[in-house]
Design goal:
By secondary structure, the protein is α+β, with helices and mostly antiparallel strands. It contains 18 helices and 29 strands. The protein has a 7-stranded mixed sheet with strand order 3-4-25-26-27-28-29. The chain has a 4-stranded mixed sheet with strand order 1-2-24-5. Helix 15 links the parallel strand 28 and strand 29.
Length: 700
């Protein structure tokens, strides 16, 4: 990714109050990746921050590599956008989750090639939407700030030729890079009985054994018995398991066995079989040719015959068979679903081949419509990125409305959306701590301590350092968007671990997953606490009050990833919003989902409103929930920051049985601070005692 920088003049530097006092300023950076955001790179004089003695928090030292925190990412797509996975299948963006492996791209010499790309984060937002129409019929709905790869480099959906909005943007005649998807097809229902029947017909008739014959009875030459045998042996477990599952769905029981063991030049094969007359006859009925096959049946049939007899070599999809009935059914099914195919052969062994024409666009549409089971036959990983379809931009039309849009962060910085190479935010969006006085500057003027790791190393080797626990994430999130660019955390983690200093991390950012291997290595030297902040489990409320933050599901998936990496992981249910997220149903759902994700501890507290947070919050409340304004003013009168003792006690009574029911009794709330119970002596306790507790200065 290109990081475009510029030195800002004195006038521009003045946009940040107090910037003139930063005599350690290296440079101020603006980049197209973050329109409207300025990163002020500074040389920190110290890394370790001492917590004031009067603070209630259970730790004495913090590290804040960033000051300020960005709201959200501006790159967003329609939830129905088709995303290409690494196994060659396609999935709507709404169903893509953190940890999924997609198709991204990477430079290899002079060429760009398709490569695996892991989803690191996912989030939602609401923005004005535009529809991009391409010459091949592909359409994409995206925000104006989304970027696509063209023959002339990355371009935003919208922009201007000059003025403050000047930036590279799509114009008619630009050609996007990829394979496209063409006009939106009517995809078959891949979980319907029609699809299952079609799949079984293609698979069993293509590669199964159906045997019905008479055998002599042992010792009785004049007596015979009729045997019924069904067997399907395959090298690919995916297709075998799908066939067995579909048969079971229709009441046919099969047994599995090893058909042949592998050798140096031969893959092992497993098989399923049945010798039951009833089940044999059931299978025969299931694979009977229908008089008027539906589109779903045809899609299933093509998936089955492709898994049984198909190949995808050098980008050419073909299905081979010697049975004329099967060949005719294959050609007809392809034609009925809108594909161009040609029948070739026969080969010397009498086998004919049905070859799909139309290159990569047709191939990907075939896989998207039919959804065969065998992933090794579908993949495009390693292929050179070439544009086979006509992907010229025909129009970019504003839809005239704001839509709920989604975006993801991937390990390669891009992914394939509706068949074209799509840019994503290089890191995930993170939460904002609203109890700072900077207001809008907090989102747009970000202080980056670029030398924080080096300074920390020097501080940790001082004889005066007592190796007290250090907390990260107590003021601003260490895994905010800028961390994807600056990568300060690996150096911090290494410094703390190598010096024998225990530490904790509290974050809303799913980019934590990037550093889990590093944290696993660090855990060999020091205790480490991890905690994920997940306050709202109602999607509508979450989008409203935390626009742009990773989804609740994505953060819960990060909890699971931390647990799978061998860490305990706390969930911070903070803050609980009176009358909005304090219902028994919402709290029960929150605790249940946290437990299901693997949370080992749950910490909760009621909303508190300090300083400049209060007017911001009441402005949001008046806009989104005007009926609650009077109730909140009664709860938080004047300069009062905390919810009343009575409310906090009531909340504790509501939480206790839920924590017991979900076996998270270790979770608790302190009715004095409104946060985690703590005392000064606990500052030197081992991290396992709850080092990752939140500072009561945090709202989110």
């Amino acid at each position: 990714m290109r990081w475009n920088t510029q030195e800002l003049g004195v006038e521009q530097q003045g946009t940040l109050p107090g910037l003139a006092r930063l005599n350690n300023l290296v440079r101020s950076v603006q980049t197209p990746e973050f329109a409207g955001v300025t990163f002020h790179e500074v040389l920190a004089k110290s890394a370790l921050n001492k917590v004031p003695g009067q603070s209630y928090v259970p730790f004495g030292w913090t590290i804040n590599p960033y000051r300020g925190c960005q709201h959200a990412c501006a790159y967003c797509l329609d939830p129905d956008t088709s995303i290409t996975l690494a196994d060659g299948s396609n999935r709507p963006l709404r169903d893509v989750e953190v940890g999924d492996v997609l198709v991204g791209t990477t430079r290899v010499g002079r060429y760009r090639k398709y490569t695996p790309s892991t989803v690191l984060a996912k989030w939602s937002t609401r923005k004005p939407a535009y529809r991009i129409r391409l010459a091949d019929g592909t359409t994409i709905v995206a925000s104006g700030d989304h970027r696509f790869l063209t023959e002339r480099g990355w371009k935003y959906v919208t922009g201007a030729m000059n003025g403050t909005d000047r930036r590279p943007h799509l114009t008619t005649g630009n050609s996007l890079i990829g394979f496209g998807v063409g006009p939106s097809p009517q995809f078959a229902d891949h979980v319907s009985d029609e699809y299952r029947l079609g799949y079984l017909t293609g698979m069993v008739r293509g590669d199964g054994m159906m045997l019905e014959r008479d055998y002599p009875r042992t010792g009785k030459s004049d007596k015979t018995y009729r045997a019924y045998r069904f067997r399907l042996a395959l090298c690919d477990d995916e297709a075998l398991e799908r066939t067995g599952a579909y048969l079971s769905h229709f009441g046919v029981r099969t047994t599995e066995f090893v058909f042949s063991t592998g050798a140096t030049n031969r893959r092992p094969m497993r098989a399923i079989r049945t010798s039951s007359r009833q089940h044999y006859q059931q299978i025969s009925a299931l694979i009977a040719w229908p008089a008027d096959p539906s589109a779903a049946w045809r899609a299933g049939f093509l998936a089955g015959i492709f898994d049984a007899e198909g190949s995808n070599s050098r980008g050419i999809v073909q299905i081979s068979n010697s049975n004329q009935t099967m060949l005719e059914a294959t050609v007809l099914a392809l034609a009925e679903l809108g594909f161009d195919a040609v029948l070739g052969g026969p080969a010397p062994n009498g086998v004919y081949s049905v070859r799909l024409r139309g290159g990569l666009p047709s191939r990907q549409r075939f896989f998207g419509m039919t959804q065969p089971a065998i992933s090794r036959k579908r993949g495009i990983i390693g292929s050179t990125v070439k544009t086979h379809a006509d992907l010229r931009v025909m129009s970019v039309e504003p839809l005239g409305a704001e839509l709920d849009l989604l975006d993801i962060t991937t390990s390669t910085g891009d992914f394939i959306a509706n068949g074209v190479v799509s840019h994503n935010c290089f890191a995930r969006p993170t939460h904002e701590y609203l109890d700072l006085d900077a207001g809008d500057d907090f989102d747009r003027e970000i202080i980056v301590k670029v030398n924080v790791a080096e300074v920390l190393q020097r501080e940790l080797v001082r004889p005066s350092w007592q190796h007290e626990p250090v907390a990260l994430g107590t003021n601003t999130d260490p895994y905010q968007r800028a961390e994807g660019r600056y990568s300060l955390m690996p150096g911090i983690i290494d410094g703390l671990a190598s010096s024998g200093t225990p530490f904790s991390i509290l974050t809303k950012g799913t980019l934590l997953r990037r550093d889990l291997p590093l944290l696993q290595a660090a855990r060999e030297h020091v205790p480490i606490d991890l905690a994920m902040s997940i306050a709202v489990y109602d999607d509508e409320v979450q989008r409203s009050i935390e626009p742009g933050t990773p989804t609740t599901a994505a953060r819960l998936a990060t909890v699971t990833a931390a647990r799978e990496a061998g860490f305990d992981c706390s969930v911070f249910l903070m803050p609980i919003l009176p009358y909005l997220t304090d219902t028994r149903a919402h709290l029960d759902e929150a605790v249940r989902r946290a437990k299901a994700a693997g949370a080992t501890r749950l910490v909760y507290s009621a909303l508190h409103l300090r300083g400049s947070v209060k007017p911001w919050f009441f402005s949001w409340l008046a806009r989104e929930h005007p009926d609650l304004v009077d109730r909140y003013r009664a709860m938080y009168p004047g300069a009062s920051a905390y919810a009343p003792k009575e409310y906090r006690a009531w909340l504790a009574e509501r939480m206790r049985p839920l924590l017991r029911a979900h076996r998270l009794e270790r979770g608790r709330e302190d009715v004095v601070t409104g946060g985690v119970a703590s005392t000064a002596p606990r500052r030197t306790a081992a991290p396992s005692s709850g080092l990752a507790a939140a500072s009561p200065t945090m709202l989110f």
